[in-house]
Amino acid sequence: MADKPTADKLPPIAFVKAIESVISPEVQRVAAGTNASLTDETINDLLVAFEFAARHDREGNELWDARDLARLLDYSDYRNFLNIVEKAKDSSKTAGIAIEHHFVDATDMVDIGSGAVREVKTLLLSRYACYLIAQNGDPRKRPIAFAQTYFAVQARRQEVQDQSAAASTEDEKRLLLRHEIKEHNKKLASAAKAAGVVLPLDFAIFQNSGYQGLYGGLDKRGIERRKGVKGDILDHMGSTELAANLFRATQTEEKLRRDSVRGKEAANLTHRQVGAQVRAAIKEIGGTMPEDLPPAENIVKVGRRLKAAIESSSKASQ
């Protein structure tokens, strides 16, 4: 984390407004500050929503808006959330870590209706600050309990990363997201089959429909030609592009089941519409369209390199 990141380095991102157009109803209830229970599938959505909420300053540092984090962690009253923030700051001081490097005062503009906006105070938080907030939160809230476990796992991954210069943050994100997509695609295939997408050719058309919605009309082959890659295009996506495709897959699967979609054509239309909604959310927050993102190193090679680095680090520590 760079010293004293400032709010003027960050683009204004209306995270909640953008996410509400594609996120599942259950996670919307969490974001609205209710006590709705979370399913295992929704926990995965919450993980992606947290990563998707990250802003980046000009130096590439990740920062989260405190008001966004409060909604995700089920705090409807922002003042109660600020009490947890103060405890997190105390924890940072106790650890001997300067709070100004991880908790930055900022202002944001919020829509109050009829085209009017109002300035509100907020905080910009590092990933470490988010971790401290989760650790000091109310574990009776399932989003908090999940966040505590999630950050514990992330902390362990960070330890491995620090031990090996070969293991980059981007590589780890890609591996995590690629695994999540692989698992969710199985659920998506099951939901599509229940809707009437049975034959392999039908499923290929169904998958292309989702890509066409997300990639502005490009199908799988079109994406391959655009990016100059061959094989599984998911294996050549960076973390940002993978996150967008994970949203597409999870939300399509849920919509197919929730709306009891039946028939191949209806399933294809649903997949394309969800893909288009994710694309619209990216556009609204000023993100780069997925077809314009550069191809990444084959994920298989990345996995082998990180595995070798971890094994080498383990041997060195023995």
Strand order of the largest sheet: 1-2-4-3
Mean pLDDT: 78
Total domains, how many? Answer: 2
Unreliable runs, pLDDT <50, ≥5 residues? 1-38, 163-167
Distance between the termini: 30 Å
Helix content: 55-70%
Count of helices? 13
Q: What is the number of E strands?
A: 4
Order of helices and strands: HHHEEHHEEHHHHHHHH
Helix/strand class: alpha+beta
Q: Strand content of the residues, in percent?
A: 5-15%
Architecture blueprint of SSEs:
Blueprint (H helix, E strand, L loop, with lengths): L14 H5 L5 H7 L8 H13 L2 E2 L5 E4 H7 L5 H17 L8 E11 L2 E10 L1 H9 L6 H22 L5 H27 L4 H15 L5 H8 L11 H20 L5 H21 L14 H19 L1
Antiparallel strand pairs: 1-2, 2-4, 3-4
Summarize the structure.
This protein has about 325 residues and is of the alpha+beta class. It is about 60% helix and about 10% strand.
Question: What does this molecule look like?
Answer:
- The longest helix is centred in the middle third of the chain and has 27 residues, at 169-195.
- Strands 1-2-4-3 form a 4-stranded antiparallel sheet.
- The chain has 318 residues and is of the alpha+beta class.
- The chain is globular.
- A hairpin with a 5-residue loop joins strand 1 (55-56) and strand 2 (62-65).
- Helices cover 60% and strands 8% of the residues.
Summary keywords:
318 residues, alpha+beta, 2 domains, 4-stranded antiparallel β-sheet, 13 helices, 4 strands, 60% helix, disordered N terminus
